[in-house]
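pipeline/complex-builder :: batch 7 item 3
reading input block
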Amino acid sequence: MIADMSIDFQERADNLIRQTGERATSGRIRVLAMLLAEQRPVSHQEIEERLRGKSRLNRVTLYRILDWLNDKCLVHRIVSDDRVWRFRANNDLRTHRHAHFKCTRCTRVMCLDDMKAEYDRPLPAGYRPLEVELTVKGLCAECV
Amino acid sequence: MIADMSIDFQERADNLIRQTGERATSGRIRVLAMLLAEQRPVSHQEIEERLRGKSRLNRVTLYRILDWLNDKCLVHRIVSDDRVWRFRANNDLRTHRHAHFKCTRCTRVMCLDDMKAEYDRPLPAGYRPLEVELTVKGLCAECV
DNA sequence: GCTATCATTGCAACCAAGTTGCATTTACTA
DNA sequence: TAGTAAATGCAACTTGGTTGCAATGATAGC
Ligand SMILES: [Mn+2]
Ligand SMILES: [Mn+2]
Ligand SMILES: [Zn+2]
Ligand SMILES: [Zn+2]
């Protein structure tokens, strides 16, 4: 059952990567499959741990793969005040600009998929906005 | 004229620090005076450079001073996606939770003092919000 | 299927920002 | 004008990410 699911993610990852027109390497497939299965933001370190066992990926290569997946809009990168990047598989290809929640106790980050990251007031004259980051920090349901 | 102003900031810094009831060391006074004069978010590195010349402060000590000033609410610390902390002197003691603007070209950060950092939708059940970070990224007036 | 080609990977060394432990100095108190 | 605790300086360390380059491997053309 779980094995079937994992094969399914493997295949979905493979397809998504091939659709970009670039090379479908085993590293890219394994990382994306893992993120598709996880469906939540995962740090570089966590990914490295999860992938341990099966012939493990070089640290630098993992950075480059994550960067590549981000460029191709297959994942998005979430910055956090702990100086750690986290990555989550995108469900639809358009990058939906949503808010995030960071639990200050367990340090997990969650995507608030239906809270848009936006602001209400006008910016100072001459400023051109390009992107908005909105992060709510506090305690998650498991840590309250 | 400028000399007078700098003495003024020195004195204000000294007073503010003494009001905390803790020690008014020359390092604390110099750093806070500089931030009071600057009135915008400044990185650790920039502060180190500005303070060069006059008997220069140890790097670690500067980190500790900034941390202390932040704890005492005399400055606030702004986190950014470039993994660099910036500090700005607080004008009033209550920490006003405002948004920030980050210019992606000149890398400067500005406080949007009258844009509140807040959100509209409800959080998932059981989540307890404690703090909100809102950052608009784009081009500042000088970089457009 | 086999080979050539160029993108991707692994490795080692590097970097920047921030932290820690501990001995020395300094601001305040009495 | 000491005595004392707090702050400082220094050296070494940590974490997260980057760079250059040689070795490897995915795909296109045959
Ligand atoms: Mn997200
Ligand atoms: Mn601010
Ligand atoms: Zn939590
Ligand atoms: Zn700018």
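note: The pocket of manganese (II) ion (ligand 1) is lined by residues A 76, 78, 88, 98, 100, 111 (CB under 6 Å).
queue -> next item
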